[in-house]
Amino acid sequence: MDLQYWLFCGSALIFSTFLAFCIILIACSQTYPIIHRSKKEKYFLDPASGKELEFSSISEKPTLSLSVVVPAYNEEERLPPMLDECLDFLEERSKNIKSFSYEIIIVSDGSKDSTVKKSLEYTKKYGSNKVRVLELEQNRGKGGAVRLGVFSTRGALVLFADADGASKFADLTKLESNIKELTKCDYIKESASIADKLAIVIGSRAHLEEEAVASRTFFRTILMYGFHFLVWLFAVKGIKDTQCGFKLFTRRAAEICFSSLHVERWAFDVELLYIAQTLKIPIGEIAINWTEIDGSKVTPVWSWIQMGIDLGLIWLRYTVGAWKIKELVKN
């Protein structure tokens, strides 16, 4: 009798605590994300004229084939080699395919080093129609930086690529082939048509996992598998690598997913894919070449633990209705 009583009291206490936590979570959460953008962050510098020009909006019709968004926080060392590789590829393609056009938007996420200065050198060299720099006044986190970059694009397809250059940029062709299969459109020939389709293709490093396990400590391997399990349990099913910084969206899919994104830091990829799966947006996962580059801003143990907590909170907030996905009406 005493044991049953204490079990009942314990269960009631746990349930009451959880219920109170959920109520507080709902009361303190914004149902839909509030996206702050200062007046300065709506403009980019055109070095040729010396004028501040206004960025385009993703709600507008596309005027280019491809937009590449590169989030950068204190990346003065790693960014230039990445941009060189990226621009060599895109320039060569635009010379060979006259209907292909592109832009690169570098988003400096409150950088304290020379990231903006070095980025503007590329704007001067290639022109502001091809390379634009979005300078955020404060650090928002990678997810927040990517979102504001995406919202400033003009492309029918939108790619976000990490500034470290870990992904081989030529592997874009692999992602393009898969998105062509998903949408039944050739975006180089049918930019306007593919922009309104719904599809996402993500680069994947899952095929490199055995090599990664061999080079990591046992503890870091446990954390890695633990994180994969939490992603599967709380958020995204059927995707092996949610965190690779090489993801391709149709314009419409990017607008829908980023408009509902609440998480602005490391776990934002997971929420993006959770939103896409909830809305039944087709997602492809393609193996790409990837190389570890020194200088990562991720602290292995702490960042994974933090992301694990974020995953649980993402699931809980959506489950109890503290967060909801926006319904965007097609213009």
From TrEMBL:
Which top EC class applies here?
Answer: transferase
Membrane topology, from the record: Single-pass membrane protein
Look up the EC number in the record and give it: 2.4.1.117
Q: In which domain of life is the source organism classified? A: Eukaryota
Record has Chaperone as a keyword: no
> Where is it found, in Gene Ontology cellular component terms?
endoplasmic reticulum membrane
This enzyme catalyses: a di-trans,poly-cis-dolichyl phosphate + UDP-alpha-D-glucose = a di-trans,poly-cis-dolichyl beta-D-glucosyl phosphate + UDP
GO terms for molecular function, please? dolichyl-phosphate beta-glucosyltransferase activity
Q: In which pathway does it act?
A: Protein modification; protein glycosylation
Xref: Pfam families: Glycos_transf_2
Localization recorded for this chain is: Endoplasmic reticulum membrane
What residues does the Glycosyltransferase 2-like domain cover? Answer: 67-181
Sequence intervals crossing the membrane = 12-35
Chief place of localization: endoplasmic reticulum
One GO BP annotation is: protein N-linked glycosylation
Entries under InterPro entries matching the protein: DPG_synthase, Glyco_trans_2-like, Nucleotide-diphossugar_trans
Which UniProt key words apply to this protein?
Endoplasmic reticulum, Glycosyltransferase, Membrane, Signal-anchor, Transferase, Transmembrane, Transmembrane helix
The record's family statement is: Belongs to the glycosyltransferase 2 family.
Protein name (Swiss-Prot/TrEMBL): Dolichyl-phosphate beta-glucosyltransferase
Tell me the organism's taxonomic lineage: Eukaryota, Metazoa, Ecdysozoa, Arthropoda, Hexapoda
Protein encoded by which gene:
LOC115881869
